[in-house]
Specification:
This protein is an alpha/beta fold. The chain folds into two domains: 18-279, NAD(P)-binding Rossmann-like Domain (Rossmann fold); 284-466, N-(1-d-carboxylethyl)-l-norvaline Dehydrogenase, domain 2 (Orthogonal Bundle). It is built from 21 helices and twelve strands. Strands 5-2-1-6-7-8 form a six-stranded parallel β-sheet. The longest helix is centred in the middle third of the chain and has 24 residues, at 284-307. Bound molecules: nicotinamide-adenine-dinucleotide and D-Mannitol-1-phosphate. D-Mannitol-1-phosphate (44H) is lined by residues 117, 186, 225-227, 294-295, 298, 367.
Length: 467
Amino acid sequence: MTPVLSRARGDGRPAAPVRIVHLGLGNFFRAHEAWYTDRAPDADRWGIAAFTGRSTAPARVLAAQDCLYTVLTRAADGDTARVVGSLSRAHSGTDHAAWLASLADPAVAILSLTVTEAAYLRSPDGGLAADLPEVRHDVATLRQDLRAPVQTVPGRLMAGLAARRSAAGPGSPGVRAGLAVLPGDNLPGNGGVAARVVTELASRVDPGLAGWIEQHVSFVGTVVDRITPATTDADLEPAAALTGRTDRAPVVTEPYTEWQLCGDFPAGHPDWAAAGARWVDDIAPFEDRKLWLLNGGHSLLAYAGGALGHGTVAEAVSDARCRRWLGQWWDEAVRHLALPDGDKDRYRAALVERWRNPRIRHRLAQIAADGSQKLPVRVLPAVRAERRAGRLPAGGLRVLAGWIVHLRGRGPEVTDVAADRFRALAAGPPERAVPAVLDALDPALARDRPVVDTTARLCRDLEDAAR
Ligand SMILES: NC(=O)c1ccc[n+]([C@@H]2O[C@H](COP(=O)([O-])OP(=O)(O)OC[C@H]3O[C@@H](n4cnc5c(N)ncnc54)[C@H](O)[C@@H]3O)[C@@H](O)[C@H]2O)c1
Ligand SMILES: O=P(O)(O)OC[C@@H](O)[C@@H](O)[C@H](O)[C@H](O)CO
């Protein structure tokens, strides 16, 4: 029988001392930040302690193989494998004591997270959604006891930072406080978003902590790019064939990868630049390029392609109708991207190649989730910019129409933090549903007659094409 991955047998690298604590032990983190860390020349000094969201299974499976796992880089013509050893510890998210202790450790320099867009719990104005029951629960709990288990991501971050402040307090003068928070979710200004929800929560619980965070914690903005679909059982065998080891938790990803970072690391960081990451002074153009062209394009394929009956990105992008719609959306979006034309053209061409890779099975259902959180950042900025320029952007409106058709029951099943509200708004004839959904996304769009009429027409066209 093929032996299980094991450091004692010489697989991966020896576990490095923990200097990074990560929340969200998902596939993307393992194919991206942990992979860059493993490839950094100073990897032997930067171990990661990673915590799951809520489930205990990923931590258990990884711990049983010494926290080692295989990254299968899947090109159109074959796989290559790398055993990644940068995870030094894997914890269940339910182990709150370990979370607090890890962040109190003065050797820890970075708190990173990949928790999905929805988990930041933002209100429509971008601040913390303080009225949500789970946020109210965390505020009440933390006011009583800063070490008590909490439910939300902002609550967990705040509790961890409170533990760090206690460890660095006057009683422990030698303890270094400085820490960088490093989000890896697909949100514009993700560093600022994380800073805002955590500080707003802290202000409600312990205003002194909010001030301490401002003084000691830096929030780094990032753009992350590497298509990483959910692993299936069919991926276990190729991983074992390439490494000669049994791995119950391999990750499949594409060869293409990018990582832009912008911000300070008060207590240092691995030499990620040597592994291919790039530090930039202005991250906004890279965010727009990634979120509008890739993620916005993905959403178009998920909703419009899903309505046509496609199940994966590769299937949808092979459909000439979807490719025409993509081109239309991209032509609109790139007019508002502050990057050289050559860069935009290269990114577009690369995207089509990346998505055509038939060996990456990226399910449209995975991408379709949480449209209510994603469309406002992936599609609406370019739609608004086109309207300001006096144009009617049918490509962008088709993404919105696709989502409305999806909410009305076409394509993948609806999974959304606000599913009930948006499904109810999207019910009934398109003439009523379209302005109702647009109004919830942005009231100005619902007041814009040509936008409403065009979106309703695109909805009807898609529903006809889906029949
Ligand atoms: N998969 C990709 O191609 C990709 C690429 C770029 C960025 N991302 C970003 O990474 C995120 C995760 O993607 P993934 O592919 O790893 O998904 P995944 O399903 O493998 O992992 C999601 C992770 O988020 C955690 N999580 C979800 N809700 C949470 C909550 N309320 N509290 C704490 N943790 C929570 C889960 O526990 C899990 O660890 C995406 O939502 C996206 O923002 C993904
Ligand atoms: O993971 P999400 O839901 O933010 O978005 C789905 C995909 O568009 C996304 O995961 C991309 O694959 C990724 O952003 C590529 O870098």
